[in-house]
Structures are given as C-alpha cells and as structure tokens.
C-alpha cells in the first residue's frame, strides 16, 4: 500500500512540476556516477578531459538545435533539450572526476 502511495505522489509531482525533478535527479546521478568511476580508476585523466570536452561541445550543439525555429516546442525539441542537460551533466561529472581520480599505486 505504501508503494502505491509513493507512486501516486511521484505521478502527481510529475503532473505539477513536469519533468524537472526527474531530470535533476538523473543529471545528478550521471554526474556522480562519472565521478565515482574515476574513484575506481576506470579511465585515465586524459580520457576524462576528452570526455568533458566532447560532452560539452555535443551539449552546445544539442542546445543550438533545440532552439531552432522549426524544432522549438516540438517533441524533438524537448528530447534535444533533455539530451543537452544530460550531456552537460556528463561534462560536469568528468570535471569532478579529475578531482576524484586516484593515481595508480607505484610498484617499487
């Protein structure tokens, strides 16, 4: 019964606030996930820098496309806007990953 109540609260908040709370949660999860992967040394520092630059440029392109006259306000525009925010969170997570990166242990 508690699950149904929680689902009802989530659905009513989506109706009230739209996709914003869900988008905020997903963007935070993506940014923290990228930073957590740096803690586990899944990629090297130049990889995180490249990922940050690529995600930032792709985010700018998606934002530019979403604002075009024929696309603005359409379902494609909404999808491009969401993709823009997700790519920005990847870029921010990659910058955070540089600070959380643990260098490999040196063997003497």
Textual characterization of the structure:
Helix content is 78%, strand content 0%. It has 108 residues and is an all-alpha fold. Helix 2 (20-39) packs parallel to helix 4 and helix 3 packs antiparallel against helix 4 (75-100). It is flat, with a radius of gyration of 18 Å.
Shape: flat
Gyration radius, to the nearest Å? Answer: 18 Å
Query: Structural class, from helix and strand content?
Result: mainly alpha
SS summary, helix count: 4
Could you list the spans in which at least 5 consecutive residues all have pLDDT below 50?
none
Write the layout of secondary structure elements.
Elements: H1 2-17, H2 20-39, H3 45-66, H4 75-100
Name the features:
single chain, 108 residues, mainly alpha
Please provide a brief summary of the model.
This protein is mostly helical. It has helices spanning 2-17, 20-39, 45-66, 75-100. It has a domain at 44-103.
